[in-house]
Each structure stands twice: as structure tokens, then as C-alpha cells.
């Protein structure tokens, strides 16, 4: 390779599809956004669709098609998919759809966590309020929460007994209010937002694509192990 040759140019996506089916519990649902980036690198929402409930997860392909038509696109240049923490079914469905669309459109697909998508706004709030850091708390099944920290760690905790390390935390996420009430700690405050908007998710995906953030594959971020178990009697023998 010639030492004077220029490095390969990084892709510069202008049309970004965002897929999110991560919410759980009473907030379960899915949403799709089509984001355009102009020549000044500003992001704007060209089209969006959302549907609550498990029906929304199943309707992701239809919502995607609707957004592409409304935006006037044939294919996107980049796909950003929320990989968790959240609903097993929602994460699997969104990531599978993202992979299929990326294959057909021959474009990159990037994974983004819910906390990463909120990080920019939360960091501003932490600085303005002179807090120690932030925690994103999301509802999970069986009386638990998924907790994502500013360090990027994600854990599942029992909501009735969990206590974070003693500090002045900014709490975000769909379970932030419940968590604040449970902790009864005057040092902890709740954020004014619980979920990131489409533009914020797309912005994180673009930063990741350019190498400004560590890579993250577009695969479900499972906090819990899958619940499927082998039968007690074992698997059936292969047919002869």
C-alpha cells in the first residue's frame, strides 16, 4: 500500500431509519422513525409511526413501510436499532427486521442502548444540577427493573429491595418515578425525559458509525438468560 494514499472515506448517511420495540410491561409497543440529515449535519424527522401493545411489535414491518413511503425513500443509508434493555420479543423483532433491511438495502446497521440514546441530555442535567451521575431505570417482568448506568453496565434488580450506591443520582427511564419513590432519597432526582427521541437515537448511531463511540452490534442486549428450557426427559432422538 502506498504510504501517501488517503485513508478510505467513512460513509456519510443522509437517510436513517430508527427502530425501537424495547419498552416492556404497560409501556410495551414499537415505533419507527425516518431521520434526514442535511448538509449542515442537522437531523430532522421526515416520518414516524408508533403503535402501543404487543400488536405494535408485530406491526413493525408495516410501520417501516409506511415511514419509507412518507419520507419518499426507497432505501435508507443507515439503520439504528435500540438493542435494549427491554422486551425480549420486541428486541428480537426489531433487531431481526433491522438485519433484514440492512441486507436488502446494503447499508450499515448499528445498535444503540436506551441509556446511550439519552446520555447527552442526561449528562447536561447532571452537570446543571451538580449531581454525581445518572441511572436509567426501566420496568421489567416479575417485580424487577432493568438498570443501565452511565458506565454502560446493565443489570436486572428486584425493585422492592434494590438500592444503588449512595450518591446524588439523576434517575431516568420509564420506571424512574417509581424508583425515586421507592428509594425515598432526597439526593436522587428524576429527569424530565424517560425515552430518547428519534433524532437522539440517530445521532448516537452516526457517532458510533464514525468511531466516536465503541462499536455495538445490532443484536439484542439480553439482561436475563432466555427462559426456554430443555424438557426434563431431554430432547427426542433424531428420527431414523
UniProtKB/TrEMBL annotation:
Pfam families named among the record's database cross-references = TsaD (PF00814)
Biological processes annotated in GO: tRNA threonylcarbamoyladenosine modification
Please, which domain of life does this record's source organism belong to? Bacteria
InterPro entries, sorted: ATPase_NBD (IPR043129), Gcp-like_dom (IPR000905), T6A_TsaB (IPR022496)
**Gene3D superfamilies (UniProt xref):** 3.30.420.40
Gcp-like domain boundaries: 59-123
| NCBIfam families noted in UniProt | T6A_YeaZ
Record-given protein name: Gcp-like domain-containing protein
Q: Which organism is it from?
A: Acetobacter oeni
